[in-house]
C-alpha cells in the first residue's frame, strides 16, 4: 500500500531525484514518485521512519503524511 507524504524544499527535478534516490537508499526496493506542484512524495515499500530519515538526510523537510 503506497503512502503519501509532504516534503518541503523541493524546487526542481534534481531535488525530486535526490529525494527519490535517498529513499531508495534507505529502503532498497521501494517505489517512489514525486509530484513537485503538490510537494507530495508517494512511497510504496518503505515505512514513515525510513522516509523521514531519508528526506532529512537529503536536506529537505519532512512534513508528515499527506
Ligand atoms: Cu532542485
Secondary structure tally, helices: 2
| Uncertain residue ranges | none
CATH structural fold name: Alpha-Beta Plaits
Whole-Å distance between the termini? 14 Å
Overall outline? globular
The number of domains = 1
Helix content: 25-40%
Mean pLDDT: 97
Question: From the alpha-carbon coordinates, what is the Rg to the nearest angstrom?
Answer: 10 Å
Bound molecules: copper (II) ion
By CATH reckoning, the class would read Alpha Beta
Structure description:
A hairpin with a 4-residue loop joins strand 2 (31-35) and strand 3. The protein has 66 residues and is of the alpha+beta class. It is built from two helices and four strands; from the N terminus they run βαββαβ. The protein has a four-stranded antiparallel β-sheet with strand order 2-3-1-4, with helices on one face. Helix 1 packs across helix 2 (48-57). The chain starts with a strand and ends with a strand. It is globular and about 25 Å long. 36% of the residues lie in helices and 32% in strands. It has a single domain, classed as Alpha-Beta Plaits, CATH 3.30.70.100. The structure holds copper (II) ion.
